[in-house]
Every structure is written in C-alpha cells, then in structure tokens.
Amino acid sequence: MRLLHTSDWHLGRSFHRVSLLDAQAAFLDHVVATVRERDVDAVLVAGDVYDRAVPPLAAVELFDRALHRLAAAGVPTVMISGNHDSARRLGVGAGLIGRAGVHLRTDPAGCAEPVLLTDKYGDVACYGLPYLEPSLVRGDFGVERARHESVLGAAMDRVRADLAGRPAGTRSVVLAHAFVTGGAPSASERDIAVGGVASVPAAVFGGVDYVALGHLHGAQRLSDRVRYSGSPLAYSFSEAQHRKSMWLVDLGPAGEVAAERLDCPVPRPLARIRGTLDALLEDQGLARHGEAWIEATLTDAVRPREPMARLLARFPHTLSLLFDPDRPDGDPAASYARRLQGRSDQQVAEDFVAHVRGGCGPDAEERAVLRGAFEHVRVDDAVREVAR
C-alpha cells in the first residue's frame, strides 16, 4: 500500500506579515497531483491543518477545496487535529465527510477505532491519535500524571489491544501529533509543555508498522518506521536550511517500510545574513540572495541610519531586521536576548528569583510552585482554545 505522509499545513498562517495563502494553495495542488501521478492509495495528514483554532475564512475555503479534490480523486484521506487546531471545530461533520473518504480523527475517545484500508495483501488498520493535551484527557485515559508520555502510552495501549483482536497479518499505521525524543525542533512550533516534559520516547509507538508524525516542522527519520514529514512551507527563518518535503511510503505485504522523500514547491528561498550594514551592502557574494526572503542581523556597534530602507534597496524581499552588536563576552551591555538564548521560561524565572535574592535560587518546593504556575497558564490557554 502506498501512503503519502504530510502534516503541519498551518493554513492561514503568514510569514512575517506576508500572506502564504497562494503558496499553500500551490502546495495543495502539488498534493493532489502527487496522488494522481504516483498512484497513492491513501493520504495521511498528521495534524495542524490550520494555524489557529478559529482560522480565517480564506483558509477554511482553501481546506474545503482540498477536501473536495481529494475525495474526487477517490483516494482515502486520514487526518488528525494538532495542537494549533480546534479539535471540535475541525471534527464538525466528520461522520458525513467520512462517507466521501475523508476521515477526520479529532476525538481522543476514538483513537482505537481505525480507518480500515485494503489492498491485495489484506487490511491496513490506520489509527488517528489527535493531539492529546495531558491535563485535559488524563481522566479519559485513566492516568495519574498529566504527562504526554502517560496519555500517549495509554492511547497506544488501546491501539495495540484493538490490533491484537484483528486477523493475523493486519498491518498497522498510527498518526500522532507529538514531540518525540530525538526530533529536532525549530522556532516556529508552538511549545506544548513546560520545562521540556513534552517529549515522549519513540518506544511509546512500538508494535505498529508505520508512525506518521506531525508537530516538528523539519522532515526527520527517527527510525525506518517513525518519521516526521515536517511542514510543507517554512514558517520561520529557523527553517532556512530545511528541505520541505513529504514522505511517499510503501507498506509491504508483511509490514515492510520503504520511503521516498518528495520535495514540496518553494515559493521563495530563505536566507539569513549577518554583518555590519556596510559589509552586507557591499558583499558581492550575497548577490545570490537577491530574490530570497531575508533575515538580516546587523552587528554594527552603533545602530546605523535607515537600515531597513538601505537593505531593501539591495535585497527587496528583506522581512526581518535584527540588531546584535559585536561586543566582548564580558561586556555588561551584551543583549538581553543573547543571555536568554536557549533558556526555558522555568529557567528564566528561577534566575530572576536568584537575582532578587542576592544569588540564592529557589529551593525544590519553590521550583515546584513556579512549575505549577507555568503549567496552569498553559492549560488555561489550552482550555480556551478548545472552547472557542
């Protein structure tokens, strides 16, 4: 069976205030063309269909057109909700839409109810695990701790139990939206937990033939059977070196996996350039970036006059301008952003406590209070997203 694995469409998202709707439409054209040209048997979309819980009308219309075209192609599509989606909104009409071959999996209670796909070798049970916010679903799965590994583990136990009751030789596919240990994140994914506890080991997904992951925006192979497709477009300059693609997966008669990486259309390349303003304007080696979207970091000791206007004269698609003056490491004027780079909210808060108490950082009980406060804010945000 031939599967096309994609994820993280983020329909409706812009790139530094530049609309990406045309580029997203071109990507969906590419998906439909690939389905037809490469004899795809099923399309897998591993979450974050939309960029926010209440997407703009133009994004909804784009999604609607895509569903109609995939249904018209006669190829089943299995799709789950991600942490950016409103599961309840995305799942409206799922029963009716499923009759057209587009299977929306947005309800955690249905994680062990597969879409059954069939080829000449028998059935493929395709399980959709929507994004599982631990604090909201821990009761549904009967787990004590609100941790991603706990709820995903419980969901996968249900999947394996269902699979064990099916005829011998039934192959299996799982779609999930999660941060799996070993994956490389970028700056454009929304954090799904406090203090790094979002990550789950790949072993959670043991016992199935292929795991189609979403959430991380870079295409990655964690193992032959566990892969991220990544987002089809770049959504931050941290993705400048990404090769945007989809996985074309051939699932053999005994569950063997062979995967081919298919490139996605690139609306415009990204480039990150760094140096003094004069150096950037004069460097002939940068001419190759004339048509790229540019993030420029200026290292001038003193902020130059009209830097954006001067950059635009040479690089007409400059979108982001940052300032990071070159200073000795011990200089007290070193940028605040540099001092915070790579530090979590929890670590920043603990550093602040140490600062105001003359170097005495929080004890274990105080760290737990801080962790609980951040968790409370995150869960509040998640509840509001679900309610919208």
From TrEMBL:
Domain Nuclease SbcCD subunit D C-terminal as annotated: residue spans: 267-355
Task: List the keywords (alphabetical).
Answer: DNA recombination, DNA replication, Endonuclease, Exonuclease, Hydrolase, Nuclease
Q: Does the keyword Metal-binding apply?
A: no
Q: Which residues form a coiled coil?
A: none
The source's superkingdom equals Bacteria
Q: Which GO terms describe its biological process?
A: DNA recombination; DNA replication
Q: Where's the Calcineurin-like phosphoesterase domain?
A: 1-218
A Pfam family of the record is SbcD_C
Q: Any idea which GO molecular function terms this record carries?
A: 3'-5' exonuclease activity; endonuclease activity
Q: What does this protein do?
A: SbcCD cleaves DNA hairpin structures. These structures can inhibit DNA replication and are intermediates in certain DNA recombination reactions. The complex acts as a 3'->5' double strand exonuclease that can open hairpins. It also has a 5' single-strand endonuclease activity.
Protein family according to the UniProt entry: Belongs to the SbcD family.
Describe the protein's quaternary organization and the partners it interacts with. Heterodimer of SbcC and SbcD.
The name of this protein is Nuclease SbcCD subunit D
Q: What is the lineage of its organism?
A: Bacteria, Bacillati, Actinomycetota, Actinomycetes, Kitasatosporales
Point out the gene that encodes the protein.
sbcD
